[in-house]
Amino acid sequence: MRVRVKYKKGDTVRFLSHLDVTRNLRMALARTGWPVAMTGGYSPKMKVSFYAPLPVGTAGDEEYMDVMLDKGGIADFIGAKAKGESRKSLYVDVLARLAQALSKALPKGFSVSEVCVADAGKQNFESQIVGSLYRIEIEEVTSEGISPAIEGFLAQEQVLFVLQRPKQTRIVDLREFVEDINVIPSSHPVIVFMKIKHDNGRTVRPQWVIDSLSRFGMDIDTGEIIVDRLKLYLE
User: Structural domain tally of the chain?
Assistant: First the structure.
């Protein structure tokens, strides 16, 4: 049985890398006693999948991971319940107990929002993610000052951004992915909501969009902004 966990990566752990996040969550699963299915071979690993990784410095209110549970283990889990209960009520209770156990095992900064059975008939979950909603907090600018730069960005058909990687340089079109940007009037610090598209795992970071505003007259140090992903939009 595959279960889907919706969890929160809070402010105190926003600077953990994606690798650190996955390591912490796997360690928490090991502490819970969840009957997690394992891969074969000489170095078995938990069958856990993570989606839409967050960059370092970004918190997330609606993050997801899928966990494959061992059939025998979950059967034992259900079999421990009293006879006569319906299969549906048993599964509901199992999910509640799984959520409770994981909540207790998670390190500070992480929390469980929901544990449910994943629909096995649907396509890969990553491909179901079609967008993200971000909240961005920016000091030392005004909503009146940043608005023209954002309008300039949105007026473009194409905004190319150069990504410098250790082994390669890549160019992405930010405008292709940015669906909407809204500035809260008279907010201080300035609050910006940004909706960004996902395309089969391909997306861009709001930090790149803010960095690109320099060509529209607004220089902002992206190392000083606070970014939270509020929501993942599913197909």
Answer: 2
